[in-house]
Amino acid sequence: MGALLPLFLQYLPELAGVAKSVPAVAEYIGKMIHTFKQAGELTPDEEEELDKAIAAHDTQDWWQPETPA
Amino acid sequence: MKKLILIALVALCFPACTPKTGTAPATTSGSAYVGNDQFVIDAEKATAYADATFDVFLHLEKINETVVKQKAPAIHEFAEYLRQPGNARAWLKSARALTKAYKANRSNETKVQLNAILSTIAEAATQAKTYTTKLNQGV
Asked: What single DSSP character describes residue B21?
């Protein structure tokens, strides 16, 4: 058991990175499936949903540049 | 785990992003409005695909920022390029505004403008998808 600890610690940052990325990927897959299902033009409610998703990027930290132009 | 994520992403490769030409009138089904203009449908799908693609790429790049900067500076530079105020967010907002304008006026001028912004978006989304695959492969 003790011998496994250094090995676990070695891969801990990578494992943590993967674990953190799962929600983002799951959300991406959900959005893709939703879009695949779209048969006609977006309804007003669906349009509002897409507009809100795009507007939300203005405050999401992963969308903010390190050095604004 | 990373392989599973990669497989899922590859399986969900987004189809053609550039809208086809062709206009069909909107119809009503009972009391519900049903728009079926293929150009509008393709424009809306392309915008939604690109939004999701940019979002997951920028999210994964941010989570792994330190490693990405060291091992793949080009990916970090591209992410920063997309993050600039006049780029990805502005393109998506323009695409939405032009799609709404086109739905309202069906003018050829608006259609040309929308096609132009969608081409820019599609090109950037293709690059973002390529880099997302690399990020999932460990850069």
From this structure: P
